[in-house]
Amino acid sequence: MYPPGLSEHDARTMWMLPGVDRAGTYVATIGGDVVATAYLKPNQPGQGDHVANAGWMVAPSAAGRGVGRRLAVHVIDAARQIGFRAMQFNAVVATNTGAVTLWESLGFDIVGTVPDAFRHPTDGLCAVHIMYREL
């Protein structure tokens, strides 16, 4: 959930997480063009750093083509190899049914829902799900 109008420089810095231990940024390409990206990092510092957090963006042109799923499987495997014990998503927008369905199909459970936590530009206030799975 990044603020609208964020500069490209600031967006890249926030996404690529410079200086964060056990963090990574991944991309998927089609024909040499980046069509999806994900980051992986500890969900919390210190005593909570055994649980991973990740974020995804998939270009509309790649939606529905399995790119997000393949990237998700890759990042989940990377998290396991790095030594994370679980993965938690803190804010999956409830109206993003494609994302919710994908994460559930990959073993994530909705462990909580926060009402009206996201200001969707067309749908208004929407709930977000906290989703979790062990690795």
What does this structure look like?
This protein has helices spanning 8-16, 67-82, 97-105; strands at residues 24-30, 33-42, 51-58, 86-93, 109-120, 124-134. With 135 residues, the protein is α+β, with helices and mostly antiparallel strands. It has one domain (8-134): Gcn5-related N-acetyltransferase (GNAT) (Aminopeptidase, 3-Layer(aba) Sandwich). The chain has a six-stranded mixed beta sheet, with helices on one face. It is globular. 19% of the residues are buried.
Return the CATH architecture. 3-Layer(aba) Sandwich
Radius of gyration: 15 Å
Number of beta-strand segments: 6
Order the strands across the largest sheet as they lie in space.
Answer: 1-2-3-4-6-5
CATH class: Alpha Beta
| Class derived from helix and strand content | alpha+beta
Q: N- to C-terminal separation?
A: 25 Å
Note the beta-strand portion: 35-45%
Query: What is the N-to-C order of secondary-structure elements (H for helix, E for strand)?
Result: HEEEHEHEE
How would a crystallographer describe the biggest sheet? Answer: 6 strands, mixed
Structural domains: how many: 1
Gross morphology = globular
Low-confidence stretches: none
Helix content, binned percent = 25-40%
- Kindly report the CATH topology: Aminopeptidase
